[in-house]
């Protein structure tokens, strides 16, 4: 019986900290998939960041995007379809290869991408200032180092 008590005690101690991480992940996930308005258009962060990524990487493929975003090709295809249907990106076949589709922003897509970049610069600057004010720059630097290492750990787990 004491073995179960030891496990419960260790769990309570470790879980109190882990719960903060779980809450952050859930809240950030909800934030990413909530719709935001850019130029009177509603997109979630995944959609708008995909548009901006295509703007910054003309000719990228859906397969490459799925690897970058760690999403299925089907999930990326749905995002691409919305962006194509809305007139923000277009598909072009590679020369002499009708199987490989490259993605490019349209003029309309480039304008929206620029609006999004300006929004992100302001938002990230404001968030960074708030976090430095609340926690200090060294803590913020440590947070990003930890996130980088956590990402490496998660990626290695996913590769198994």
UniProtKB/TrEMBL annotation:
Single GO MF annotation: DNA-binding transcription factor activity
Superkingdom field: Bacteria
UniProt keyword list: DNA-binding, Transcription, Transcription regulation
Lineage: Bacteria, Bacillati, Bacillota, Clostridia, Lachnospirales
Record protein name field: Transcriptional regulator, MarR family
This protein's record includes keyword Metal-binding: no
A Pfam family reported for this protein in Swiss-Prot or TrEMBL: MarR_2
This protein's record includes keyword rRNA-binding: no
Gene3D superfamilies recorded: Winged helix-like DNA-binding domain superfamily/Winged helix DNA-binding domain
Transmembrane residue ranges: none
Domain HTH marR-type: residue ranges: 1-152
Alphabetized InterPro entries for the sequence: HTH_MarR-typ, Metal_resp_HTH_trans_reg, WH-like_DNA-bd_sf, WH_DNA-bd_sf
């Amino acid at each position: 019986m004491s073995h179960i008590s030891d496990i419960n005690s260790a769990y309570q101690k470790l879980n109190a900290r882990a719960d903060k991480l779980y809450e952050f992940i859930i809240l950030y996930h909800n934030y990413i998939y909530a719709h935001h308005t850019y130029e009177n258009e509603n997109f979630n962060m995944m959609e708008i960041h995909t548009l901006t990524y295509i703007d910054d990487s003309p000719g990228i493929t859906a397969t490459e995007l799925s690897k970058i975003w760690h999403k299925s090709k089907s999930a990326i295809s749905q995002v691409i379809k919305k962006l194509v249907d809305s007139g923000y990106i277009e598909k072009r076949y590679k020369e002499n290869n009708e199987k490989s589709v490259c993605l490019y922003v349209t003029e309309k897509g480039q304008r929206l991408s620029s609006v999004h970049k300006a929004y992100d610069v302001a938002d990230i600057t404001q968030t960074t200032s708030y976090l430095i004010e609340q926690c200090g720059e060294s803590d913020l630097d440590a947070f990003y180092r930890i996130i980088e290492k956590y990402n490496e750990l998660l990626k290695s787990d996913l590769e198994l």
